[in-house]
Amino acid sequence: MDGSGKGNLDQVKHVLLVLSGKGGVGKSTITTELALAFRHAGKKVGILDVDLCGPSIPRMLSVGKPEVHQCDSGWVPVYADPQQQQLALMSIAFLLEDSDEAVIWRGPKKTALIGQFVSDVAWGELDILLVDTPPGTSDEHLAVLENLRKHRVDGAVLVTTPQAVSTGDVRREITFCKKTNLKILGIVENMSGFVCPHCSECSNIFSKGGGEELAKLTGSAFLGSVPLDPLLTESLEEGRDFLQAFPESSTFTAISHIANTLLDSLNA
Ligand code: ADP
After folding, report:
1. Closest CA to ligand 1's atom 15
2. Range 195-198, long-range pairs (CB < 8 A, 24+ positions)
3. Which domain does 253 fall in, by range?
């Protein structure tokens, strides 16, 4: 790739970054579920998985380890739904398959390569592109942001858990957004309460409401809470579409609400 795919984002209407202060809070989960929810709403969606620390989206969408092809303008994304072609994915994991490639990606040129990767995917027409970034506020974020900015970024969705809110990781994330003039579209509190697999009742095993409080404190929008739901974990492990499998669940309602709020705020 020579980074010549400058126009690759020209037909992408909206670009959203999904950020979290640290790993394991459900950033990839929320990215995946939002993408599925947008697709259910009739949108053509793309996911760019640049989470070098744990590129898990291919597994969550059950696309396996496909061979990625190149065309004149860059990498050709893989479709999670090859028939409909409404959900496109490009993951750094696809390129890490080759061991030589892995060395390069981990080497000193990593940041520049990540930045380049962002503009080297031939997306074609998309309503929304979700970018799953590595946790934290590293140089890689800046590289991703700089390269996406050449096009346009609508803003960021911040994912936190009730506990993470108290550690201040997400506050650093908010400061990062403010410093880099990245609009915060809102905060999602994930793993907020636990849905019992037997009676479907949701109980608060950790504190609740921290995300909402933080949103108020920082003047950001609170998009909603997603409970810790064993059925969601299972769906992600098996690469199944949770929203299609459990439309009656309270977790479905929570995710749909967040997705609809975002679509409204984007006018998408
Ligand atoms: P991150 O991207 O922030 O590192 P992940 O999205 O990979 O985190 O989530 C970590 C683990 O937690 C995954 O195994 C995922 O299946 C699980 N998980 C995340 N959110 C939920 C949830 N709301 N309900 C059930 N399991 C969840």
Report:
1. 233
2. 195/227, 195/228, 195/229, 195/230, 195/231, 195/249, 195/250, 195/251, 197/230, 197/231
3. 7-266
